[in-house]
Write a structure and sequence with these properties.
Layout: H1 7-16, H2 19-29, H3 31-38, H4 43-52, H5 55-64, H6 69-78, H7 85-88, E1 94-97, H8 102-112, E2 121-125, E3 131-136, H9 137-142, H10 149-152, E4 154-155, H11 168-177, E5 182-186, E6 192-197, H12 198-205
Parallel strand pairs: 1-2
Antiparallel strand pairs: 2-3, 3-4, 5-6
Helix pairs in contact: 2-3, 4-6
Amino acid sequence: LLQYMDQATAARVLEEIQPDIRKILVKSLGADRAISVMSKMSVDELVDLIQLLPGREAREIVGKLPIDSKTQKIKRILEYDEDTAGGLMTTEFLSAESNTSVADVIERIRDVSHLHRSIYFVYILDKSGKFRGVASLRNLIIAQPNQTMKDIMKRAKQIPSAAPSDDLASVAAVMTKYNLLSIAVLDSRDMLLGIVTVDDIMRRLVPDA
């Protein structure tokens, strides 16, 4: 069936299949077809799949992926252990600068929502990419269109974050304690590297669900 599906549909199907079956299907598809399908998967799902493969196969897949920003993000995530915040995170998140209006952000969400599996927050960054805070979808909806992200965001000092080296247990504990649907992963300079969602945590804790 995967052989006859278009690449985007096959990628969505592959994302939903149990990990042990994914490995079999990737081998059965053949290198060229597998890579064409995998290149359409979301970053976090593709990283999960690559981490399942033996080292040699994983390196071959990564080496044949298109040379673009998505592949660069995948390579950065693969540098971290899979059971750390860096290995669990996805780089697919919605961001905005603090002076962006609510109306502009909502319009952007309409334009790009089909590219994201879920959107819980808009992550507020300064011009250099440093993390400044988050604005929830709830706050966006109840805000006035002319308000800015600075007016409605919860500032970085008020919310927990994770370092890329934090292990799975500590990230899960923080997200549970503060009832978070996602958590920002920051480097030592407070640059936003990615986010870990509750889905990422559950996939690692219950891989066969």
